[in-house]
Structures are given as C-alpha cells and as structure tokens.
Design brief:
Elements: H1 2-22, H2 32-55, E1 60-61, H3 64-82, H4 92-108, E2 114-115, H5 121-155, H6 169-197, H7 207-229, H8 235-262
Antiparallel strand pairs: 1-2
Helix pairs in contact: 1-2, 1-4, 2-3, 3-4, 3-5, 5-6, 5-8, 6-7, 7-8
Pfam families: Cytochrom_C_asm
InterPro entries: Cyt_c_assembly (IPR002541), YpjD/HemX (IPR052372)
Domain Cytochrome c assembly protein: 42-262
C-alpha cells in the first residue's frame, strides 16, 4: 500500500504538471481546476506515503530522501493553498515536477537515518523550524527566478507576450521580499533553538552545518538590509537569494548526501 501511495502521487503530480504546462502561456490559461484537483489528491497520497516511510520504523527515519520529500510536500501544499492570493501558477509545474522526483527518490533509494525525536522535544522544535525556514526560502528562490524571467522579458520588449499566467513584476518583487523576511526570521529562530536545545552544534560532525547555515543567514540578512537601506533590486537580490539557498542546502544535505547516497 505504501508503494501504491508513492506511485499514485507521482502520477498525479506529473499529470497536473502536464495540464498546467500545456496551456501555461495560452491567453485563456490552463485548466487550473483540473490541475489543482489532481495536485491536491497527489499531495494527500504523498503525505500518506511519507507517514509510513518516516514513522513506519522504531523511531523516525529522517533519511535525506525522506526529508527532501517532506520539504517538497510542504512547498507543494503551501503553493496550492496560496494560489488564490499569490501569483504562482507559472511556478507550479516546476514545484510539482520536483515533488514527483522527490517521492521517486525516497521510493527507490532506501536510505536510513533513524532518530528518536519523541525523546527530545527540543530537537523536534529545531527540526520543525528548520524545515519551515528552508521551505519558505526555497519558495522565495522560485519567486526570484520568476522575477528574473519577467525582467528579462520586459527588457526584451516582450511585454505584449506576457499573459495572465505571468504576474506584474512589482507584485512578484513584493512577495519575494516578504518571503525572504519570513524565511530569514524562521531561520534565525531555528538556529537559536539549536544553540538552546542541542549541545553539539560545533562538534566535529555538525560544525560545518552550523557554519554554513550561519553564513547563509548572514547573506539573507545582508540582502534584506541592502533592499531596505540601499534599495537593492534585480541582479543583487537574485544572486544573493541563490547564494543563500546554495549554502543552506549544503548545510542541510551536503554531508548526508555523501554518507547516505554516495557511500
């Protein structure tokens, strides 16, 4: 049954992605009702699969592939819920494709990283905040890419080709900075919780994660200050957003990728 849920979520995500992409730049737009319904059912199958994959062992199997799939689920659900108020139809195909790949990776790569979070409430708080911070900053990264694409189209004098699926540049920019502010705030609180509840933040096995995540936090704070004080827009914002996410991804997944996947 677990495998069935995984396969069902992959199929539904991919069909929804195809429905959206087929008419994404058509003047009438894609069939959002059909696509979102398929994606919503896919997200339900996704979390049912993850519930068994993570909780179906003594403790919790927080392997890299399971955590990545959980993050992709959080991002997918957030995007589906926010679609009525945020311009994210253009971003959904990529989000759904990534979610499908993350489920497939969790299904075919049987990595294990058993934890007993229930015995350490502080660790649960730290992990939860970290997941939400990372998910929020990934969504901010997607909006940064969207902003870059719209800016490019406008500079190429292709504004007439921008349909309803492509929102106004200023709206996307405003959403991007709100997401960066929320994500950075969550990241700071997550790191504070780590220093409060965990005793090994600078131990041999975790020092690189701590240093990289602190560097990413510094970059995001620098970006927000630059936008507020110096009015940064465009390339500076996009470049620093990408750099911050790369450092954060290395902090969260770098060493675990080597241990769980390559070795």
């Amino acid at each position: 049954m677990t495998t069935l849920f995984a396969l069902l979520s992959i199929v539904l995500y991919l069909i929804s992605m195809i429905v959206l992409m087929g008419r994404l730049f058509h003047k009438e737009g894609p069939n959002k009702t059909l696509a979102l319904s398929l994606a919503a059912v896919g997200s339900i199958a996704h979390i049912l699969y993850l519930a068994d994959a993570i909780m179906g062992v003594p403790g919790q199997n927080m392997s890299m592939t399971n955590v990545l799939s959980l993050i992709s689920w959080l991002i997918t659900v957030s995007m589906l819920i926010s679609i009525t108020v945020l311009p994210n139809v253009m971003l959904l195909p990529g989000v759904l494709g990534f979610a499908a790949l993350s489920v497939l990776a969790a299904l075919v790569i049987p990595a294990a990283h058993i934890m007993h979070i229930e015995l350490r409430p502080g660790l649960l708080i730290h992990i939860t905040l970290s997941l939400f911070a990372y998910g929020t900053l990934v969504i901010a990264f997607l909006y940064a890419l969207q902003m870059s694409y719209i800016t490019h189209r406008l500079k190429q004098k292709e504004a007439a080709l921008i349909h309803s699926s492509m929102p106004p540049l200023m709206l996307v920019e405003g959403i991007l900075f709100k997401l960066l502010l929320v994500g950075t705030g969550l990241l700071v609180v997550a790191q504070l919780s780590g220093f409060i509840f965990l005793e090994d933040m600078f131990s041999k096995g975790y020092a690189h994660k701590t240093v990289l995540s602190l560097a990413a936090t510094a970059i995001y704070i620098f970006l927000l200050v630059g936008q507020r004080v110096w009015g940064w827009r465009g390339k500076q914002v996009i470049g620093l957003t990408i750099l911050g996410l790369v450092l954060l991804s290395l902090a969260y997944f770098g060493s675990r990728f080597v241990r769980e996947i390559l070795l």
